[in-house]
Amino acid sequence: MQWSDVLNDPSLRDLPYKIELDAQGRLLMSPASNRHGIQQAKLVRLLANRLTDGEIATECSIGTHAGVKVADVVWMSPAFLRQHGDTTPYPQAPELCIEILSPSNTAAEMQDKIRLYLGYGAQEVWTLNDAGRISLFGPEGERACSCLPGMGALETL
């Protein structure tokens, strides 16, 4: 299955799940909770208050060699937007990709997503746990402070 097939399939439009594709084109579905939606909104507000240029998106699809991954929240610079517009899925990761952890996520799955996003061009990847703790990652590993201008140190949301 290709990402365009997922987007055009009417039976998949109203599912209450986050949908991704694995490397073999199989659908992966994760149920979304209200907590997840609230945390997404808090992240969007945080980014909107601190990053004045660029755009913020939720449920952003990114094509990788391991399938189409969907970041919960992303920030894209004006340069990224000029290059990629609203291409779906993006062929590279936006500068900031954020994953909200849920009980169904394994540590290995999150490590793989962090590596994928960074390998596909993200400057930074954040994870947000149940307690609202933000962990920041760059190519060198976990970071104490964000590399994005105006963000600095982030601990909890």
Automatic annotation (TrEMBL):
For this entry, the protein name equals Putative restriction endonuclease domain-containing protein
Q: Residue ranges of the Putative restriction endonuclease domain?
A: 16-140
Gene3D superfamilies the record matches? tt1808, chain A
Any matching Pfam family: Uma2
* SUPFAM superfamilies, per the entry: Restriction endonuclease-like (SSF52980)
